[in-house]
Design brief:
The structure holds 2 protein chains of 2 kinds.
Chain A lengths: L1 E8 L1 H8 L3 H21 L2 E6 L7 E5 L5 E4 L8 E9 L3 H12 L13 E5 L10
Antiparallel strand pairs in A: 1-5, 1-6, 2-5, 3-4
Chain B lengths: L1 E8 L11 H20 L3 E6 L7 E5 L5 E4 L8 E9 L3 H12 L13 E5 L10
Antiparallel strand pairs in B: 1-5, 1-6, 2-5, 3-4
């Protein structure tokens, strides 16, 4: 079963991350790298992707004539997707265990961030699935 | 340049299954046609739909690293319903694709004009991270 593990945060949170020391950022990345390696080794890894800064986000709507209308203004409270992992696992519990490992990646001073990770199963069929 | 096109929904988005069958079929046909065109132009990298928000869990690690799962979300939370990753020449092309997706038909065939969030994705994790 495929699950997506979504890491989201507000603009304020992203600004806070930029203030981390180089050493803290390196420790954080080292743990994420090691998780990716383990998932690749276990055959559970499907994909991972980081997204560009929320400042580059645009909201797009199609007008009546199909012309795109873009807007870059978002509510302060909006959570932006920062990155995701897609894993192919035997059970939801395994997906939650991987999410917990990501959640416990170290933050400033090596203290686990315990950041929330949203875990969602892929639809087996649905409007957005292009097969 | 790679962009991710995100279709978000509030919980009210769960109303989609209550659409009439022919409205749902027209919506799915539109999405399939869009994906087919993107595949043919070589711009489609990935497209996925997610299960409904009622199956979503938020997971945190406890002190001992054991997962703590919770299924309660703020009322205002937006849920990702599905996404496309496209590899395009410029942001304008990504916005044009998003606008096309935005006009997918809803009940009675009227365009939904739903908002699609467009974000550049990083070129991919460095090889040493995999």
């Amino acid at each position: 079963m495929k699950y997506i593990l979504l890491m989201a945060g507000t603009k304020t949170g992203v600004t806070g991350y930029h203030a981390w020391s180089q050493k803290d950022i390196e420790s954080h990345m080292a743990v994420l790298t090691s998780i990716n390696k383990e998932l690749t080794g276990s055959g559970e890894f499907v994909a991972t992707q980081g997204l560009a800064e929320p400042g580059e986000a645009k909201m797009v709507r199609g007008e009546k004539n199909g012309i795109p209308v873009t807007d870059g203004v978002f509510p302060e409270s909006k959570e932006f997707l920062l990155g995701y992992w897609i894993v192919d696992v035997a059970s939801s519990e395994r997906a939650y265990a991987i999410a917990a490992r990501i959640s416990s990646a170290p933050g400033p001073g090596g203290v686990p961030t315990n950041m929330p990770i949203e875990v969602r199963r892929f639809a087996s069929h649905g409007p957005s699935k292009g097969q | 340049m790679k962009y991710i096109l995100m279709m978000n929904t509030m919980r009210a988005g769960q109303g989609v299954p209550s659409w009439q069958r022919n409205d749902l079929q027209a919506h799915i046909a539109f999405m399939k046609d869009t994906n087919k065109q993107l595949r043919e132009s070589g711009e489609l990298v990935a497209a996925e739909g997610l299960s409904f928000p009622d199956q979503a869990k938020v997971v945190r690690a406890g002190n001992d690293g054991v997962p703590i799962t919770d299924g309660i979300f703020p009322e205002s939370k937006e849920f990702l319903a599905g996404f496309w990753i496209v590899d395009v020449e410029n942001p304008e092309r990504a916005y044009a694709i998003a606008a096309r997706i935005s006009t997918a038909p809803g009940p009675g065939g009227a365009p939904l004009n739903m908002p699609i969030e467009v974000r550049p994705v990083m070129s991919g994790p460095p090889p040493e991270m995999l």
